[in-house]
Design a protein that fits this description.
Elements: H1 10-14, H2 24-28, H3 35-47, H4 49-60, E1 69-74, E2 77-82, E3 85-86, H5 88-92, E4 105-110, E5 116-120, H6 121-137, E6 146-149, H7 154-166, E7 170-172, H8 179-189, E8 193-197, E9 200-202, E10 205-207, H9 209-217, E11 227-231, E12 245-247, H10 248-251, E13 264-265, E14 269-275, E15 283-288, H11 289-303, E16 311-314, H12 321-333, E17 337-341, H13 352-360, E18 364-367, H14 369-378, H15 381-384, E19 393-397, H16 403-413, E20 420-423, E21 457-460, E22 473-477, H17 492-500, E23 512-520, E24 526-531, E25 535-538, E26 541-544, H18 545-553, E27 558-568, E28 572-581, H19 589-602, E29 611-614, H20 628-635, H21 650-659
Parallel strand pairs: 4-17, 6-7, 6-8, 8-11, 11-12, 16-17, 16-18, 18-19, 19-20, 28-29
Antiparallel strand pairs: 1-2, 3-13, 4-5, 9-10, 14-15, 21-22, 22-23, 23-24, 25-26, 27-28
Bound molecules: adenosine-5'-monophosphate-propyl ester.
Adenosine-5'-monophosphate-propyl ester is lined by residues 275, 321-322, 397-400, 422-427, 448, 514-516, 528, 530-531, 537, 542.
Amino acid sequence: MPESHPESNIESVLQEKRLFAPPPAFAKSAQVSSLQAYQELFDRAAADPAKFWGELAQQELSWFQPWDTVLDWQPPFAKWFTGGKINISYNCLDRHLTTGYKNKAALIWEGEPGDSCTLTYAQLHREVCLMANVLKQLGIAKGDLVGIYMPMIPEAAIAMLACARIGAPHTVVFGGFSAEALRDRLVDGKAKLVITADGGWRKDAIVPLKDQVDKALDDNHVPTVTNVLVVERTKQKISMQMGRDHWWHDLKQGVSAVCPAEPMDSEDLLFVLYTSGSTGKPKGVVHTTAGYNLYTHITAKWIFDLKDTDVYWCTADVGWITGHSYIVYGPLSNGATTVMYEGAPRASSPDCMWELIAKHGVTIFYTAPTAIRSFMKLGEHLPNKHDLSSLRLLGTVGEPINPEAWMWYHQIIGKGKCPIVDTWWQTETGGIMITALPGAIPTKPGSATLPFPGIIADVVDQAGEPITNESGGYLVIRHPWPGMMRTVFNDDDRFRRTYWEHLKPESGASLYFAGDGAHKDRDGYFWVMGRVDDVISVAGHRLGTMEIESALVSHPAVAEAAVVGKPDEIKGEEIVAFVTLEGSHQPSDDLAKALKQHVVGEIGAIARPGEIRFTEALPKTRSGKIMRRLLRSLASGQEITGDTSTLEDRGVLDKLRSEA
Ligand code: PRX
């Protein structure tokens, strides 16, 4: 079991006594409209999960062929809706064309230098069919993995839906990742084709995505990739390799706009999304077709209380799970209008988010605590300049939200009338697991509140036994759910070890270990405290310490590196790297700068260390394990408490203290 650490603000959050009941006007017409209704759903799901999920799958999704068995559970491997045939692209598009949504806005897009467009369901369907046919023309068949490395433009969603349509699993790589990181993912997934753009806008600069793809594929590093499909976005000069690289706008001219959705087995691979863990390289989280479709559909519907008239905006990037589940698949499966934004607030337009809410009449706004904290810092005069009266529901995701930020969000953005859903979940869970249902569950600032119906969450101790008082422990899930990851891509063993073998209660029950610490209060509300493993969350982005350490030691000047998170007011955590140097290399500001840049080159700008601390040695146990707990205290300037008797050499600690 990893060392536990996110214990700092437990006292204060558990003393949080404010309770916000769902506003009666909201509750009245909500999808789930009372605590009693929630409780009934929850109890029904707990009593007979197969019946509960089976009924929802029947009511909510369109099937080409019904399933035989709802759940086949051979812990830790689950299969949902076996025997069924379904296609998520069909559920997100085709079925809406005959139910009155044909001319409804499916996607409202806002591009960075003021470009914008709206695609109706009929138009989105057409674009997806065209791209699906282009992919087929380029030799992509069912089962071939496609890499997607795109800016936040409609074609990113179109690419995902086109892959799903023909049964080609996708792996979306966040456009902020480096060429190295892209290459690793394409190699691991044995991708056949990459969909990218000439560039993307990031604030006022262009991110040279195609150049990065070229670098990733250079020297035949990814021999499986034989074609690259390029969307024109920025019109900057790029090189196109004959035979390999193709413009989307050229190829789409030559294909038909008719492309029936491929009937997929329920358990066919839908996508692989790489995420950081505490050990090794990022792992490919595997999600399959039917269960993911159902889970993202129903969570989006009940948690965001989706109505025909809503304009829903999730500010995530499609490169993360939040973008997959709650920009693309969940909302579109419901026939909702989803907003996609390429930009980000910058000095010249610090109020762009509020401007867009007013411009499009956004009713539901879903963002990350790190964004809320930075908006807060900029001041309330910015949102107050805009008409935010269309908003009726707010959400947060990605990290714990501190009660101050929660209250600001509630008062300044929601004007005291919008419920807030603080949604806890992970890449691995596919969809939201613990959250308020906005018309049903009273909220407490800082608590994700209660599990979604069908989710049996708990807090347990080191031995995997339930904790019955309010003290902290490990957050676990006791029963499989349709949206759960099925395995680590090509590595069942890693799946078992990472998630299922840490906590083994005497009863022999299988517990899914999420990697988070949590408390359950007297009302059964969950308070998620953050990771208990070596994963750092910077601005809500998940990074493994080991990944950053490997990047650092790949620099010729570095002998050893240990990376920890240090609390940061806005970003949640900042990366601090303790580094020992090889041979004759000497610490200097220039070297620190070079090392930071090296990490950016290896992983991407999100992994840039905030601080490099050169040291002569790292504190280790006698068995050679780096004692990160001590480094965390040092990095944040706290007193070192707790047991240090396992330290091999106490002198190292004294030295580190004096170097601080
Ligand atoms: O530590 C938890 C934190 O984000 C982790 C999952 O990260 P990722 O797979 O990148 O997915 C992020 C978006 C779903 C979790 O293990 N986390 C996510 N949501 C919350 C949270 N921590 C506290 N409260 C949340 N609402």
